[in-house]
Design goal:
single chain, alpha/beta, Spore Coat Polysaccharide Biosynthesis Protein SpsA, Chain A, two-stranded antiparallel sheet, 16% strand, disordered C terminus
Length: 315
């Protein structure tokens, strides 16, 4: 069996709980040293943002950016903050001030550290804010995250990208996990079972048929592929279209997995928790305090809390 056939067989076996075949080892040294090993030439970070109740305050997105810059491997990568338009006149003035405040934040706190802003002229929803950012992405990979998620822990971005480059036919999108253990948004129906991770030369990934807008690493080419399915007139989250499409096609034939190639990073025996949602849409209520409490009490030992001023704002 060649390597593609082994992966195909392992995907089938993960669905039935069968013992996996071992993948042949390859030397990742040259893969890791792509573009002289400079991550900023490999990966662009895309942060989507839209009106939320706390605007014009920037503390939520600031916490997101700080959490990204706490990850050493990606702290020098280009960041694109892509703004949706406003479809609620109650937020218009506050949202415009938020944009001004973000630019001041980039200038004064981040010192123009490779951060650019992209603006939608009107309300286009999240899908098209990402579409708007594509022409500014000059790297083969992109990391997409919404403005109210935190990222933390030992995430081997360089190794993940190397494996995605080596197995680009089958690994197109790698999601980070936000739930503990086996609860990783990968519900399969009988006779299928929760799949075990496949070891791609030390990078353990769990097969899933659930594409998600939650923070993820993707080939830029994969996003170009996604946009073929989604009209620029659509006003929705990408997962509202891709989630059902991927799941349905894989149920028809598991080899249709190749079209989307979605995986979750980690394995249940480790602490897979790498992201936390702080839910900016509910931030006018005290639920925000509860979210921070949950975050503080569920992160792996030693995981840094972002240096932003979220706690000061809540207090």
């Amino acid at each position: 069996m060649d390597i593609d056939q082994i992966i195909e067989e392992n995907i089938r076996r993960t669905r039935y709980g069968e013992i996996l075949l071992e993948l042949p080892y390859f030397d990742m040294t040259k893969q890791i040293e792509l573009n002289d090993g400079k991550m900023e030439q490999l990966l662009t970070i895309v942060i989507t943002t839209s009106p939320i109740p706390t605007h014009p305050n920037t503390n939520i997105i600031e916490s997101t950016i700080d959490s990204l810059m706490n990850i050493k491997e990606i702290k020098n990568c280009k960041i694109i903050i892509t703004f949706d338009g406003c479809n609620d006149e109650r937020f218009n003035v506050r949202y415009e001030q938020y944009k001004i405040n973000i630019n001041e934040l980039i200038k004064n706190k981040y010192e123009f550290r490779n951060v650019i802003c992209v603006y939608a002229d009107e309300y286009v929803h999240q899908t098209n804010t990402i579409r708007n950012s594509m022409k500014y992405i000059n790297t083969p990979f992109m990391f997409v995250i919404e403005h109210d998620w935190l990222i933390f822990g030992d995430i081997k971005f360089r190794e993940i990208i190397s494996v995605m480059n080596m197995y680009k036919k089958i690994i197109k999108c790698v999601r980070l996990n936000y739930l503990s253990g086996y609860m990783y948004s990968n519900k399969l129906y009988p006779p299928f079972v929760v799949p075990e991770p496949i070891d791609f030369n030390g990078v353990k990934l769990i097969y899933t048929d659930k594409w998600s807008c939650h923070p993820h690493i993707s080939h830029k080419d994969s996003y170009e592929f996604y946009f073929h399915f989604i009209s620029d007139k659509a006003r929705c989250y990408m997962e509202e279209i891709l989630y059902g499409m991927e799941y349905t096609r894989i149920q028809i034939n598991h080899l249709n997995f190749y079209e989307f190639g979605t995986w979750i990073y980690g394995e249940p025996s480790d602490n897979m928790l790498h992201i936390r949602h702080i839910d900016g849409r509910n931030s006018e209520s005290m639920k925000k305090v509860d979210s921070i409490f949950i975050y503080k009490n569920n992160v792996p030992d030693g995981a840094p809390f972002p240096a932003g001023s979220m706690i000061e704002y809540l207090e």
